[in-house]
Design a protein that fits this description.
- The chain is an alpha/beta fold and 763 residues long.
- It is 33% helix and 17% strand.
- The chain contains 28 helices and 34 strands.
- α9 packs across α19 (380-393) and α13 (288-308) packs across α17 (350-362).
- The longest helix is centred in the middle third of the chain and has 21 residues, at 288-308.
- It is globular and about 80 Å long.
């Protein structure tokens, strides 16, 4: 395959709904482009089914009562991307140096196809060359074994199965560290920290069934049409029965406006559509704290007036008295909040906040759905805590149809934490794994993503093992990270396709190709299944049946097991070979480590809708220090962590409709009307005029972090867009170059990618 060129850029408003014929046309384009055969079509029918495979993209839950097809546009793209007939063979690397490939775009690298052979970097030729698996494992083990464990990082992508994740975390701890950053560090760690402190569990409290009983949804900072399209079926069903959906999001995202169900023949034939949001409030980036404070302030004012008039209370005083702590301090902060400041910081008129508050005040069961638009700010944890505050005010946790509903991104990112992928000792049953495996586990906190980046840049991290992902592309501080990566002593990348991270070799570098989740995984005991956890804490089996892309591929558990055997001394209590030969034995080990979460694990694999691992907060049992759900008085009204200044904008990094995380499927962003390019700067027309810019002009963005470090992104096309004033939008990961590694959420260390301080300069 030759490197592809993007089409000539076209930017025109898109008038259609989410879903509908647009989704059909999108699939009609990508399936032949990937040259997938009949096998891929058969696999699509199995996608997200109880005895099928679980989607390799988003983590939205799978229903008990299935639709004829259970894949969305984005999920089908991910399947086609994995089952492509294109191959990246050793011959390809004989034709291209890594220096040359660094000029390729992300799309072209992955579009070249599936990796087929284990590869070693040869510095003399600046090329990858084929090697044997034995050679790779022996050198990796020999190089890592004498190193200081504190200098080695074990990163994992959110699509890695529970089985491989459990093995990986155990291997790292037996090696001597907890340097286990993962995808959660980059997106929903603010949820894990915020919910844990507030209600005693690090995850949402709701399940898919709660969409059937709620009467209102508060929706914050999540682009459902591009990032979790299957949720649109649940939102559509809610709207059909009259549920109010009140949305707070800086951009008008089509999936939150209008949806045509591709599985509804009548809607498709008549071009019918369902309006999703009953209210849509375009809050400023970082202004959600102020908006939620405004709703809370109305509730408190109405509550006070109701009590004075001898009317029923607006707040759930019985729930607050029995189940919460810190209410008085929170209410004091609400009373002290200034309306002018709330309006200014939220960017919303007081009347709009009043409309939202009135609906919330009369609703009986409310879901609060949110995404990275809340978590990826400096005050991201406070954003999550403020969502909880609103829910607690009216008793909307621990009853049907109510509770916090974070939308996790990758398909098993939540599950990885469940089985030990974490840098935090308190999240792991240390004494149990010591007893189970006969070793002394590390207690010292490991490195999270931000700390790993610091370590790569300052040289304290000497080796990096990546179980999937595209770490260099996903993290902030792009240029310093790429420059420092080549100084690593060891870089091991386990992957299905070539990506940019693989083009920056360390002194010893291996690129190890693995099976994809959709492919048949046959080990000593026969065909295997793996498991994943969705956003609502339901666990599902995943059985791959597609023919592997190459006979030379190994599964992720097989690769981890082989690395562990080279890296660790023999341990009679850990039979890595037996685990690799039969994944049921890994699940038995998981059950022994986490008996309350995984009782009778192997007998629950194929339940329709998955099996729910339980959630104490949903039972109104609060595993907090006080034994109650905690209110928090926020420290301010703005989540950005920096002050406004003349010429300074708040940049939001965005995903397109042709993208999942760092994977770029193409150059079209249908819902935003962008075709043929990703070099776009979305800006309010008035801000464009004030800056003396014209539509289609090329400009650059420069970091305005005030740390004296120059960061710049050139070649962006000025595009007027319906976006709050003072805010800009541009695509991730290309604009990560503008983000300082030290610009992260307090407490959770999530890169604050939804409000980055920048200035516009002439290109």
């Amino acid at each position: 395959m030759v490197k592809q060129k993007s089409d000539a850029p076209e930017i025109e408003p898109f008038e259609g709904p989410a879903g509908g014929w647009g989704s059909v046309r999108s699939l009609a384009e990508i399936l032949p482009r990937e040259r997938v055969g009949p096998e891929a079509l058969r696999e699509l029918v199995r996608q997200n089914k109880p005895d099928g495979f679980q989607c390799v993209s988003c983590a939205w839950p799978k229903p008990k009562h299935l639709h004829p097809v259970e894949f969305c546009e984005e999920g089908a793209k991910a399947t086609a991307w994995e089952l492509t007939s294109y191959r990246t063979t050793p011959d390809f690397f004989q034709q291209h140096t890594l220096s040359e490939l660094r000029d390729w775009k992300d799309y072209d690298l992955e579009q070249n196809g599936r990796l087929t052979h284990p590869l070693r970097y040869d510095a003399a030729t600046d090329k990858y060359v084929a090697c044997s698996w034995d050679e790779a494992f022996a050198e990796i083990g020999a190089t890592l074994k004498p190193m200081d464990p504190k200098s080695v990082v074990f990163y994992s992508s959110g699509r890695t199965s529970l089985e491989a994740s459990y093995m990986y975390g155990l291997m790292a701890r037996m090696y001597g560290n907890q340097n286990l950053p993962d995808s959660s560090n980059m997106c929903h760690e603010s949820t894990s920290v915020g919910l844990k402190a507030a209600i005693g569990v690090p995850v949402g409290t709701t399940r898919l069934e709660d969409f059937e009983t709620c009467d209102m949804i508060l929706f914050f900072g999540q682009n459902v049409g591009s990032n979790a399209p299957r949720m649109l079926h649940d939102l559509r069903s809610c709207r059909k029965r009259g549920v109010e959906i009140v949305t707070f999001n800086p951009l008008k995202e089509r999936g939150l406006e209008r949806f045509t169900d591709p599985q509804n023949p009548i809607e498709m034939a008549t071009l019918g559509e369902t309006n999703i949001s009953t209210q849509y409030h375009q809050v400023k980036a970082g202004g959600d704290l102020a908006a939620m404070m405004g709703i809370a302030k109305f509730l408190v004012e109405w509550h006070d007036a109701a009590l004075a008039a001898g009317k029923p209370p607006v707040l759930d005083t019985a729930f607050i008295a029995e189940h919460t702590h810190g209410f008085d301090a929170f209410v004091a902060s609400v009373r002290a909040a200034d309306w002018d400041a709330i309006v200014h910081e939220s960017g919303l008129p007081k009347a709009e906040l009043e409309e939202s508050a009135r609906l919330y005040a009369k609703a009986k069961a409310v879901l609060a759905i949110y995404g990275m638009g809340l978590t990826q700010h400096v005050k991201g944890v406070e954003n999550v805590r403020m969502v909880v505050n609103l829910l607690l005010m009216r008793g909307n946790i621990g009853k049907p149809g109510a509770g916090p509903t974070p939308v996790r991104g990758h398909s098993n990112v939540q599950g990885q934490r469940t089985v030990g992928i974490t840098e935090k000792t308190e999240l792991v049953p240390v004494e149990q794994i010591e007893k189970q495996y006969g070793f002394t586990a590390p207690r010292e906190k490991g490195l999270n993503t931000v700390e790993a980046c610091r370590g790569v840049i300052d040289g304290s991290v000497k080796a990096f093992v990546a179980l999937g992902g595209n770490f260099l592309r996903a993290v902030p501080e792009t240029e310093p990270m790429e420059a420092a990566w080549t100084k690593l002593d060891v870089s091991v990348q386990i992957a299905t396709k070539l990506n940019r991270n693989h083009l920056f070799p360390g002194k010893v570098t291996y690129l190890l190709p693995c099976l994809g989740r959709i492919e048949s995984d046959v080990q000593a005991s026969g065909p295997q299944v793996v498991t994943v956890e969705d956003s609502t804490s339901c666990i599902h089996a995943s059985r791959g049946k597609a023919h592997p892309a190459s006979e030379h591929l190994l599964s992720e558990p097989a690769i981890v097991g082989a690395l562990a055997k080279q890296l660790l001394p023999p341990n009679p209590k850990v039979d890595w070979d037996a685990w690799v030969g039969n994944y049921a034995l890994i699940r038995d080990a998981i059950e022994e480590t986490y008996p309350k979460i995984f009782p009778d694990f192997n007998n629950k694999l194929f339940r329709p809708g998955g099996y729910w691992k339980g959630n104490k907060a949903s039972e109104r049992i609060w595993l907090t220090e006080s034994g109650k759900a905690e209110f928090l008085a926020p420290s301010g009204l703005c989540a950005t962590g920096f002050d406004d200044a003349e010429g300074r904008f708040r940049l939001m990094t965005l995903r397109s409709n042709d993208q999942f995380n760092t994977t770029i499927y193409g150059y079209h962003d249908r819902f935003r009307g962008v075709k043929g390019t990703r070099d776009v700067l979305f800006i309010h027309a008035a801000d464009m005029a004030d800056a003396g810019l014209s539509e289609g002009q090329l400009v650059a963005l420069e970091s305005d972090a005030g740390d004296g470090i120059a960061r710049r992104r050139d070649g962006l096309i000025v595009t007027p867009y319906d976006i709050p004033r003072g805010c800009l939008g541009a695509y991730y990961p290309e604009c990560n170059v503008l983000m300082p590694v030290e610009h992260y959420a307090e407490e959770s260390f999530v890169p604050a990618a939804k409000s980055v301080p920048v200035r516009i300069v002439a290109d």
